[in-house]
Amino acid sequence: MVSESFVGGQYRNTDRPTMFSIGSGPLHNELISWIKKGDPLSPFLFLLVMEALSSIFYKAGLERFLKDIQAPKDGPIISHLFYADYALILGEWDRDNVTNVARCLRIFYLCSGLKINLHKSNLYRLGVENGDIKDMANVIGCNTGNIPLSYLGITVGANMNRINNWDPIVEVFDKRLSVWKAKTMFIGGRLTFINSVLESLPIYYFSFYKALVGIIKNLEAKMRKFLWVGSNDNSKMNWVAWDWVTWPKKKRGLGISRLKEVNEALLYKWGWRYRVETQSLWRKVYAGCWNNIVKLVSKLNLNGKRLNRVILGKVGNGDDIRFWIDTWMGDLPFAERWPHLFTLESFKSCRVSERIDSGQGNGVFAWNLVRHPETDTELKEWHECKEAVNMVRLSNDRDSWIWNINGQDGFSVNSVKKTLIHDRGNNQLPNFKWCKWVPIKCNIMAWRGNLDRLAAKVNLRRRNVEIASVMCPFCDEYEESVDHLFTACSVAIRVWTAINVWCKIPPIFAFEFKDLLDTQKFFPWGEKCKKDHQWTDYYLVLVYMEKQERVGFQADQEKLRDNQLSC
């Protein structure tokens, strides 16, 4: 901002009953509305009252009682910003100006019964000494504050390229993980907690700032440890690589989002809104963080394309679409299509309406080149450009924009996330289908077994874990691997045989763990039964129960051995 100061205040209701008073002409007829808690009109009462306060400041600005500020680059004049119960009052650093702000707030209190909470109000300054701000704060009776400040839960005025300015997000993560007793949650509950809570915590910051690589690694490390360990007190083995975990469930992963992709998808939203919402206030105040966001998004690649190639312009009157930089005819902007001709352009950000002279009829061009094309390449590009835009016809309608990714009709953050996931390429995970009819913990156990990432003794030895014996605790004949434990062990074979007899189904011939997940494909059941994966759900539960039985059996064996040694 270009002003030297601004005042921030938060409003609260007084202890008296809610009353809304409206003056009408010189007679000052009062309309008093008593609204109780739970009334359908209560949500709109605050909006109506804040609209009255906005009118007071607007009228004071028109009468020159308040010295407003003007945004950079001939932007709009701004005196105040209201959102919910937060208010920012902006103005020049002047004692009379601050005094008139206090008078407007006093008038608002006398009319509405809403009083400013001075204990929660702060006076901020830019380029002013501390002694001056304290004297000015005494005029209003509020506190003093320093830049950067927290507004609507986000840090404003801080250098977000420094890691310490991201501490609020890290602290929120730690607070959430300390409150929830993760030790009492199964892995399915922890996965749900990550998808529904932890992934959503940094979204507000990710919507405005490009997250640092170190911050993303730190947050994902906390999510990874919470998934496999459950708390920060202990250290356990991460059985599956994080790159595999963060694939969607339809692509054989656990469905956890990568925070980098979430950050980029949210930033792309501002690039799209910058093109579409040309009349919005934030678009007119094109400075500060908005300028940085748009420049940052313009450098990102989506499906191998920059933003100016992803957003296609549909020409109307040609006042918003840039002739050379935007993509509005074909798949490439003219600057990339005819680069030699673009270097001759004197005003490279010109609009379509500035190059197609509609005043003399369509098809007449108003070129503004540094010099006439001379070389063969320049002349060739010049003739090609003239032929391409020869059929362009301007109209009285406004220019419009089209999101040109994967045939999407309109922009959505979800579509950008899907495109970023597609840009990763193909994963090497084996086929696995999630079954919605069984608990999540059963699906995760089967998913890990399909990857050979269960805590079998052979896998523990492969990870340098000291084990007294790697023999199967059931049969004590072969080494305990995932395939042996569920398919080749004599105890497992007897279990599956008993299930065949009990369910009256053909014998199960499974040589690997994944054969158990595909059993329903070879049974003579109806198509509906196969489609719904009913028997897959059944086998997932049985496999999970067998795994739990093995854990309990192993614990009993170790307990018995310890008792014998103690005797």
Tags for this model:
567 residues; two-stranded antiparallel ribbon; 12 strands; 45% helix; extended; disordered C terminus; RNA-directed DNA polymerase activity; transferase; Putative reverse transcriptase domain, Reverse transcriptase zinc-binding domain protein; RNA-directed DNA polymerase; nucleotidyltransferase
* Total of domains: 4
- The count of strands amounts to 12
What oligomeric assembly is this protein in?
single chain
pLDDT < 50 runs, ≥5 residues: 1-33, 528-535, 555-567
Shape: extended
Helix content: 40-55%
Q: What is the arithmetic mean of pLDDT?
A: 77
Q: Please give the radius of gyration in angstroms.
A: 33 Å
Keywords: Nucleotidyltransferase, RNA-directed DNA polymerase, Transferase
Organism: Helianthus annuus (Common sunflower)
InterPro entries: RT_dom (IPR000477), RVT-Znf (IPR026960)
GO molecular function: RNA-directed DNA polymerase activity
Please describe what this structure looks like.
It contains 24 helices and 12 strands. The protein is α+β, with helices and mostly antiparallel strands and 567 residues long. The protein has 4 domains: 5-147, no CATH class; 153-302, no CATH class; 304-404; 440-566, no CATH class. Strands 1, 4, 5, 6, 7 and 8 form a 6-stranded mixed β-sheet that branches. Strands 2-3 form a two-stranded antiparallel sheet. The protein has a two-stranded antiparallel ribbon with strand order 9-10. Helix 4 packs parallel to helix 7 (213-228), helix 5 packs antiparallel against helix 7 (213-228) and helix 9 packs across helix 17 (413-423). Keywords: Nucleotidyltransferase, RNA-directed DNA polymerase, Transferase. This is Putative reverse transcriptase domain, Reverse transcriptase zinc-binding domain protein. One of its GO terms (molecular function) is RNA-directed DNA polymerase activity.
